Amino acid sequence: MLRAGPAVGRGAPAVVSQTPAVPAMSALPHPRELGAGSSFNESALWYACGVPAPGIRQGWKLYVPMTLLNAREMLHRVAPLLLGAGLHFKYVKDLTTLQHLNAGVHGYSQIGKCLVVYLADPQASFLGALKEALGPYRDQCPAVPCARPFGGRLPLFYRYGAYVGSTLALDGREVADDRGSLAHAVPEGVRDALVGFTEPEAEDPTVGRFLRRYPAFRALAQQGKSGVFHAMDATAPTLRQVVLKAGYHRGQLQPDGTDGCDLLRREIACYRLLAARGLEGMAPALLDTLDVPRKVALVLEYVDGPNFLHHKLNGRLRPRHLEQAWRLLERFHAEGVYLGDAKLANFLVGPIDEAEADPDERVRVIDLEAAGTIGDHAPPIRTFFISPEPEDPRRSDLAHFLVSVLYPYDQAGKTWTNRRVDLRACLEREPADDAEAWALERLRVLLDGAGE
């Protein structure tokens, strides 16, 4: 499974897509509804039930991933077992928090950690009962990236970590609790007391052969739905750099049942659509694909250059860059194709001083999970949630692109939980540079033309 550590860097969160507000669904149960009585605490994001074991500051943690579709049912099934065993545990307080957690908004290593059980003293009878209770949810939930699986496709994972603070006391030494590494899920010097309760999962040999052809050496981005990796093409006459993108089974599951694998299948279809409509030169070349049960991947040409968001965050974004992207969007729209998540981070460009006869040839668009043909059903994948949202996907592309230019990425308090933008309010601001002035003028024309 390709789940290397996350790519970290300034502006990295802008590559994470979110879904819109959760539709009307069953709210998660209050602890009293689960039988916790008065033995619970709450924070902005969590309910904590039971009493922590006195004096124990570290030990085993169990993680039960859940989805928007099954979280309420799973909690009603599992919580009585945990309460009956006298265990301390916490679970996400609402569906929005669950959605953000599974999307990677709170960090890649936190994906799937919807229910956390503090298991200081593992008992075979309890673990057997827990696995039986979770049996109906096999293969229905996302994986927890930096924890070991119990196997059998159960939604159950574990690691050894701190209950209090962020350090562990091991062999008389204090060491950091590395929560972002699968290799450190069971730290050196700790006996794995849970491995005897796990069962192996067979990997499709087709997947192994595919990954050996394109060995990845660096994670470029990690989200709940997919991972993007810098890799090498070992099949070429001479080694060449490529981009490997893997969709995650049950990753960032949507209310309609769509997951990361489905979104990547859509992206593969969009790359083929571009070729059919003469637009293949405006995106990295699609080199190879894999589509087997529970695993979908694509391999793309590696474009050696930064994206426009990198230029913006480093003060190098110019109106000429925006004109290039705008012309590319217009070309896509003329061929009946929309991008869906048009933003600065999804436009790659060659070196800023590179001289070419046709500067538009330097720009490539990436991340086509939300792209499609005008008139089809668009998936609910967006970076910004704008108001008013244009109904025409072409105007929506243009509006989202302009918002991505104007959004104050470095402003305190601007996080993935509040990326809602009022287009009219944008017009009231003063531009910080020529690029923002360009975007404000285009936005004014766009809104006036729509009669907003």
From TrEMBL:
Q: Cross-referenced InterPro entries, in alphabetical order?
A: Kinase-like_dom_sf, RamC_N
One Pfam family per UniProt: RamC_N
> Which residues belong to any copy of the RamC N-terminal domain?
32-177
Q: Which domain of life is it from?
A: Bacteria
Its name, as the record gives it, is RamC N-terminal domain-containing protein
Q: Which organism is it from?
A: Streptomyces gardneri
